[in-house]
Every structure is written in C-alpha cells, then in structure tokens.
Design a protein that fits this description.
This protein is of the alpha/beta class. Helices cover about 45% and strands about 20% of the residues.
Amino acid sequence: MTIAELLRENEIVIKRSTCSKNEAIDLLIGLHNKAGDIENVEVFKEAVLERESRGSTAVGKGIAVSYGVCACVKKPGFSVLISHEGIDYDSLDGKLSHIIFMLSIPEGEDSLRLDIMLRIMVIFSDAKFYESMAKINTVKDFIQAVSDEENEKYVKWSER
C-alpha cells in the first residue's frame, strides 16, 4: 500500500496557527472518525495515547508519526496535520513538528504500519521537499506533491 493510496482530502488539515500536542491528537483522531476509519473514538485515543506514553513519536526534522493499532480500526487510515507555526510534539531534536501524521492500523497489521512509516521517512528525507510541504497552502497540492515524490523515490529504488 502506498502513501498516495491512503491520502484523502478529508483527512488532511492545514493549520496556520499553533496548537498543543493534545489538540493535534484530538484533531487527527476526529479526522479518522469522520472518514469512517475507526469504530470507537475513545478506544482509538487510548491506543494512541498509550503509544505516546512509551516515548516520543516525533521522529525529528519537523515530522511526527503518531499511530494507534487496535481492534476498533475498521480500515487503515492516514490523517495529516500541517502546522505552519509548528507544534511541540516532544521531539528528541527539540524542534517543533510541522507535519504530523497519524496512522490508524487494524490489529494484526503491524507490517503495514512499518511499511507506511518507512515510506514517510523516505519521502520526507529530502530537506527541501520537507520545507516546501511544511509551508504548503492547499491540501490538493500536498497530495499531488507527496504522490509525485513517492513515485519518484520508489521508482528510483526499484530500478536499482
């Protein structure tokens, strides 16, 4: 499964003002709920917060990847919050996170979570690409740019 296959306009928010980590988590969970990815908001939030309690999901360089793996997930989902101001997501590098991803993963599909996380790291490994995405202004432009970058990077890798 590719990132492009998971990206849906109704699960991406561009926020020009800042918010707290907890507000970001609630917003992203709300997107999963509205999209029909999860059956129970409270149970999914418990799974996300349990993961957050084990250590930061801010991977550095302005990116955070929160996730919940539980039986309440009906289908894999992928929500995104782009914060122009940045959010303190407890990153180990001390930097604010500008792109926060949240994955909803059905129980038993941990390999899917790992594959998606790897793809995120590969796609956003280029600093110039990340910087352009952190300040992007439209959801459609974000989807198109991520899809193009994913195709370019994975086509190059598969040709090696």
